[in-house]
Structure formats: C-alpha cells, structure tokens
Amino acid sequence: MQGGFASSKPEARSILLVDDDTGLCHLMSEFLSSHHFRLTAAHDGVTGFSKAMAGGFDLILLDIMLPILDGLEVLKRLREK
Predict the structure, then answer these.
(1) What is the pLDDT of residues 66-77, one digit of tens each?
(2) Sheet holding 59-62, edge to edge
C-alpha cells in the first residue's frame, strides 16, 4: 500500500462484438481477455441488437455484413433508441 491507497486490478471493460465469423470472435475473446476486457459475442444482427439493448457494454463492435439484420440496420435501430 502506497500513499494510503490499496492497489487493485483494473475493472474489466465489457465489449459486445457482433460478427458472424465465430473463429474471429473466439480469437478476439482470447486476446481481449488477456488485456482485461470481457467480450460477449453475437453472431447475427437480431441477437446483437437484443444484447445491445440489454445494456451494460462499454463498447460495441459491429460488423456490417450480418445475417438476418445487417449491421447498418442494427446501428440505425440503436441510434433510434
């Protein structure tokens, strides 16, 4: 303890990754978790939108070419909310 403050680990930031490439999502999850980030993945636009609306994310990474609902439509709907 220095200067009256206890040292602590930095709080993990939460990222929502909306991408249909499951291999990429897995690689990004491994990399980001080693840098104190928590990654939640969604593999289509509808699921991504639903998870984004549930909240709790510091950052949303959104692919444009998604099945069911494309990334631009997801972004448009998020901005409307």
Answers:
(1) 999 999 999 999
(2) 37-42, 13-18, 59-62
Q: pTM, whole model, 2 decimals? A: 0.83
- Kindly provide the b/e burial profile for residues 49-59, where b requires at least 16 CB atoms within 10 angstroms of the residue's own CB: bebbeeeebee
Amino acid (1-letter code) at residue 31 = F
User: In the chain, count of helices (H) and strands (E)?
Assistant: 3, 3
Q: Report the top-level CATH class of 13-80.
A: alpha beta
Rama region for 55: left / alpha / beta (φ>0; ψ in -120 to 50; rest): left
| Alpha helical stretches, state H, 34-70 | 45-54
C-alpha span between 4 and 43 (Å, rounded): 46
